[in-house]
Design a protein that fits this description.
Blueprint lengths: L5 E6 L22 H4 L2 H18 L4 E4 L21 H12 L6 E5 L3 H4 L5 H11 L3 E5 L5 E2 L2 E6 L11 H17 L9 E4 L6 E5 L2 E5 L9 H6 L6 E8 L5 E8 L12
Parallel strand pairs: 1-2, 2-3, 3-4, 6-7, 7-9
Antiparallel strand pairs: 1-10, 5-6, 8-9, 10-11
Helix pairs in contact: 3-5
């Protein structure tokens, strides 16, 4: 990298506290019970991948955190999928995970109320925790950070698709709305890169002058809702963005296909 090039790490959908969420492996949050316990090898594999990748990336200019950093109370499944039910503990898990990223600057957005709180914005506590740890951290509903003249558009939620060839439609729509807001009296910056989380898969749509993409998740597949009601692949991982001094942009997805999640046919 040239002297003035800048690297940004992007992470999304950690779902700390859930049995397949990103879980620091110090032993404090291993959990108990049959369903929780049998997923411990998966959590360990995912954590070691995440930790190794942010170490390989090294010191970076900033980290973008695209929300759903905690899983919440798990009300829809009666809390039966939780490693940790206490929201302050979930926020502590997320803080510990984010501090693995070698950066002094975090730009965060807030997630879906089901996970991060309807009456309390729990992710604000994570931002405060990061500040107490000596990092700069800001949190927003929707924000447009600029790095070397390259403007990013960060927000959590985007529509998903149940068909493979439809996955690019909603994220393309997000860029179109951004462009229309920019033309509408300049009420939004005209973004070069639109990023969204929420859908737990990575896809990128590019045209001359812009990219629009959904982020991989840092929660592995393994929820009751997903297993019983959803179709489609899940991408686990994080993103690395490099912006040169002229604002030219390139990116690399770092993705894991977990060995501990391979399903075999049931022989009968």
């Amino acid at each position: 990298m040239a002297k003035n090039d800048k690297t940004v790490v992007g992470v999304s959908d950690l779902h700390c506290g859930q049995w397949a969420g990103l879980t620091p492996q110090g032993g404090k949050w291993r959990g108990a019970g049959l369903e929780v316990g049998k997923r411990q090898p998966l959590r360990k594999e995912c954590w070691e991948f995440y930790k190794a990748k942010v170490k390989d990336i090294g010191k970076c200019h900033a980290a973008f955190v695209l929300a759903d950093a905690v899983d919440g109370s798990g009300k829809a499944s009666g809390g039966t999928e939780l490693l940790v039910a206490d929201m302050q503990e979930q926020c502590a898990m997320a803080t510990e995970a984010l501090l693995e990223i070698k950066t002094d600057r975090f730009v965060m957005v807030r997630g879906t109320p089901y996970h991060v709180g309807k009456d309390t914005d729990w992710e604000d506590l994570i931002a405060r925790n990061l500040c107490k740890a000596g990092r700069e951290a800001t949190i927003h509903d929707h924000v447009w950070p600029e790095v070397n003249g390259c403007v990013f558009d960060l927000k959590h939620k985007v529509g998903g698709s149940s068909i493979p060839h439809g996955r690019g439609t909603s994220i393309s729509k997000e860029k179109l709305w951004n462009s229309l807001w920019a033309l509408h009296g300049g009420q939004q910056p005209d973004a070069n890169v639109v990023l969204r989380g929420h859908v737990h898969y990575h896809i990128c749509v590019s045209q001359a002058g812009w990219h629009a993409m959904t982020m991989p998740a840092l929660q592995a597949a393994g929820t009751k809702y997903g297993g019983r009601q959803c179709s489609g692949t899940v991408d686990f991982g994080l993103m690395e963005f490099n912006i040169n001094e002229k604002g030219a942009f390139r990116y690399e997805p770092h993705l894991l296909v977990p060995r501990n999640q391979t399903v075999k046919a049931l022989k009968i």
